[in-house]
Design goal:
Chain lengths: 259, 254
Amino acid sequence: MHLGMEGVCKTFLGSRHETPALRDIHLEVESGELLCIIGASGCGKSTLLNLFAGLDKPDSGSVRENGQEIQGPSPQRVLLFQEPSLFPWLTVRDNAAFGLEAAGVPLAERRRTAERYLDVVRLGKFTGRFVHELSGGMKQRVALARALCLEPKVLLMDEPFAALDAQTRDSLHEELQSIWRQTGTTIVFVTHNVREALILGDRVVLLSARPGRVLREFRVSLPRPRHFEDPGIAEAAREVLTDLRREVMKAELEERGMA
Amino acid sequence: MSRTARTRLVFFVSLLALWQCLCLLRLWPAYVLPSPLDVAGSVVDGFGSGLFLRAILRSLGRILEGYGISVAVGVPLGLLLGRVKAVQDTLGTVALGLQALPSICWLPLALLWFGLSERAIIFVVIMGALMAVTLATADGVKNLPPIYVRAARTLGASGLFLYRRVMFPAALPAIVSGLKLGWSFAWRSLMAGELLFVTVGLGQLLTMGRELNDMSRVIAVMLLIIALGLGVDRLVFLRIERLIRTRWGTQPHA
């Protein structure tokens, strides 16, 4: 599924201030591509994903999917959140099957599908548990399985691994790469971690400080699977980091100016 | 026995002993301050004659009916109130206003509407619990973590399914505290109603005790009312609350 944004602006209205989040964004995501978006915190990365997910509408410009304007959320375009978003009143299995339940899939079938994808994220033994019994990394894996159950054409990931420890994150990076290779899903992955972006992305887009604009694009052609400690990753990261630091500094200056 | 339980036991035994000693001093006549043994005797008599049990069953029957209706109406009404701005701005204000009225103030109106009937008391019980349940539910839905609804929508949930499977369970911790509050309001309203409007029930036992100048019966019934109120709170609500707190993660899992 091909995604596109053209001339997109988005401003949030507070009671006193207007916060411009995105300004004049042009972005194309090819079908089957794994695109990473990086930027300083508060640069509008999440807003961008929310627009693709159809949870928000742009003030101006257009957000399209295969050339069609995106009207609202769709189980074909699933958003994964940074914060835990599992439903604590459901078991792991029923959490994973939630999207299928909403789609009216019969109980036995949706349980089978949920268990299959829980196996994929290596949580096959935890299907009957409740959310409070899981660690942070396991929760994010359930959230991933919950999205995968719908076999979406597009996965939108909003810093889903940011709160996890390094080991868990490494193993999830590998899982995500292998899932992506097997399913051919289009993935837009937002992060503030340059190395993470370079490990996962075919292409990395750098957003400017608020309001977010597309500053630069990097093609990543290192061989897969990639790992955190690969020398190629470190080298590529240096180049991207120089640009990112400048943007972080700008963001800080602006925040100080506003305070 | 845990340390707390031991402390409590010692405290209550001493309290009873103190009370018994005061009575042995004969400072007041027995119809002013009956001894704990007199009260215990009244409890035994009351249960022995079936008088207490009949009263308990009638009172519990009434509260179940009145409270049941309050919950059945209050929870859906609260869901509506919490999600629809127009309903909140209109009915919400009415509910807030009515909550300021002690429910027993509805009794004269209820008597004029329903006459000296069972329905008048049930009505008072409903008016006692309904607003608490409604407002707590509305609050719960209004303040539920937006992440749940966003997550559900991106997974394709909408409409009634979203209400039933996400908003309602997400608001459940708040709803349960509303139910608990509603229960205690219903219990108070029922006792007040039964005291004023004499028919078989725990409130009537109190009134009867007063008329017969039987202080030990009065105290026995008061203790009974405390025990019942506390019992439901401990056996029903405390358990539900604990389960929800653990599972919903609002409290570290013990």
